[in-house]
Amino acid sequence: MKRMILVLLLAACARPPEVAGPQVPDLAPVAEKGAEGCWQEQSPGWFEVPCELSRDETRSLQRALAARGLLDGPADGVAGKATRKAILDYQSAYGLPSETLSLGAARSLGVLPVPM
Fold first, then answer.
1. Which of 16, 105, 22 shows the shortest CA–CA distance to 65?
2. pLDDT reported for residue 40
3. Are the C-beta atoms of residues 45 and 90 closer than 8 Å to each other?
4. Distance between CA 47 and CA 5 in Å, rounded?
5. pLDDT for 10 beyond 60
6. Element holding 17 (H helix, E strand)
7. Region 26-108: CATH code
8. How far is Cα 16 from Cα 28, in angstroms, rounded to an integer?
9. Cβ pair 40, 101 in contact under 8 A
10. Burial class for 115, CB neighbours closer than 10 Å (0-12, 13-18, 19+)
11. CA–CA separation, 41 vs 97, rounded Å?
């Protein structure tokens, strides 16, 4: 009985496990020109971009931006002025002031898969 009480007391005093807070995505790892993949020269340097989004991927991007309150209008699969402005607003919040979608942003928005 004493052991049971001791175990219960120890369990009650134990700290809850540490839970990591939300991760801020690295939207634009800067790289050197000439690296493999599709790279775009932008300020602050070169960053990786999706080579080309399909119309369905662009619709997914538009829905993800709309879900965050950054884009109004239909998800038509065409990256027009409003979509580029929403991309700029999203990426600027993470330190990448560009309307060109970075590969990191596309992954953090769930448009493209994250490599394992």
1. 105
2. 59
3. no
4. 59
5. no
6. none
7. 1.10.101
8. 35
9. no
10. exposed
11. 13
